[in-house]
Design brief:
Layout (H helix, E strand, L loop, with lengths): L4 E3 L5 E3 L4 E23 L5 E22 L3 E6 L7 E12 L6
Antiparallel strand pairs: 1-2, 3-4, 3-5, 3-6
Length: 103
C-alpha cells in the first residue's frame, strides 16, 4: 500500500494511516524495457491492466490510472514473458486529506 510518510519529533518516518489518500495515477519509469503490465485491483471493480509492449527496447515511462483510495487498491507489476523489463522508479499523483485524521 502507498502511504504518505511524515517525520515524527525524533526524525523517524511514520506512515499516516488515519488520513485519506486518493491516488489518481501512477507513473512507472523503465530502462531498456520491452514488455510489462501493471494491474490495478480496486475494491468493487474489475482488474484493470495497462500494458507496455514494444518491439525495440527503450527508456521511458508507463502511465497508469488508479482512481482509488490507497487502502482499497492493489497495484502489481507483471512480466510473464522472457522479454526484459527494468523498472527504475515509480511515483504517484493524488490528493491527501488530513481532515479524516482529526476526528
Amino acid at each position: 500500500m502507498l502511504f504518505l510518510r511524515t517525520s515524527d519529533s525524533t526524525g523517524r518516518l511514520k506512515a499516516d494511516t488515519r488520513a485519506r489518500l486518493q491516488i489518481r495515477r501512477m507513473r512507472f519509469f523503465h530502462q531498456d524495457s520491452l514488455a510489462y503490465q501493471v494491474s490495478v485491483l480496486a475494491a468493487g471493480r474489475t482488474v484493470r491492466l495497462t500494458t507496455l509492449d514494444l518491439t525495440v527496447p527503450e527508456d521511458g515511462e508507463l502511465r497508469v490510472p488508479v482512481l482509488c483510495e490507497n487502502k482499497q487498491s492493489t497495484i502489481t507489476i507483471i512480466n510473464d514473458t522472457a522479454r526484459p523489463a527494468w523498472i527504475t522508479g515509480a511515483e504517484w499523483d493524488g490528493e491527501f486529506h488530513a481532515r479524516n485524521a482529526l476526528r
